[in-house]
Design a protein that fits this description.
- 20% of the residues lie in helices and 29% in strands.
- The protein contains 4 helices and 9 strands.
- Strands 6-7-3-5-4-9 form a 6-stranded antiparallel sheet. A 3-stranded antiparallel sheet has the order 1-2-8, with no helix packed on it.
- Strand 4 and strand 5 form a beta hairpin.
- The chain starts with a strand and ends in a 5-residue tail after the last strand.
Length: 152
């Protein structure tokens, strides 16, 4: 589906969790001047596509992706080569894969807010450096920076 520069679809998109766009509709929506990028609808409609968001801007250590990739290698040495990883415009990563076990969106890791973050957003108690395996929503796909392997 098309997305605006805000990474949000220009209109109602939830129906596409159940129905594919026609070729004619695809041509129409991607021919609009406000279309900035593409998002994939996750879940059954996309063949169980799922995405994981690594928000490195919330990683105070600067080692989140290296530790994440090391954990993947330790669990299954061949898995990392089969993942598609894209860098995001905010310095993070999206990890794309297919998973037949479609469940809810989850937060996989969270750290407490720093004092500065708490002053800026008192209602937010933590930051999510690794979260949201998106299973039922849509996932913005940064089209210009695809990576095929994780950081060394």
């Amino acid at each position: 589906m098309p997305v605006l520069a805000t990474k949000r679809p220009p209109g109602y998109w939830r129906k596409y969790q159940q129905f594919l766009m026609s070729d004619r509709k695809i041509i129409h929506v991607f021919d609009q001047p406000e279309t900035y990028g593409i998002a994939v609808v996750c879940g059954k409609i996309s063949g169980d596509f799922e995405g994981l968001d690594a928000d490195c801007k919330y990683d105070l250590s600067g080692t989140l992706m290296n530790r994440f990739c090391a954990a993947i290698r330790a669990g299954d040495s061949g898995l990392l080569r089969r993942l598609v990883i894209a860098s995001t415009r905010n310095g993070g990563y999206h990890i794309y894969y297919r998973c037949p076990d479609v469940g809810r969106n989850l937060i996989l890791a969270q750290r407490p807010s720093t004092p500065e973050e708490a002053d800026h957003s008192p209602q937010q108690t933590g930051q999510e450096p690794l979260g949201n395996p998106v299973k039922r929503g849509n996932y913005y796909c940064p089209s210009d920076k695809w990576l095929s392997v994780c950081l060394q």
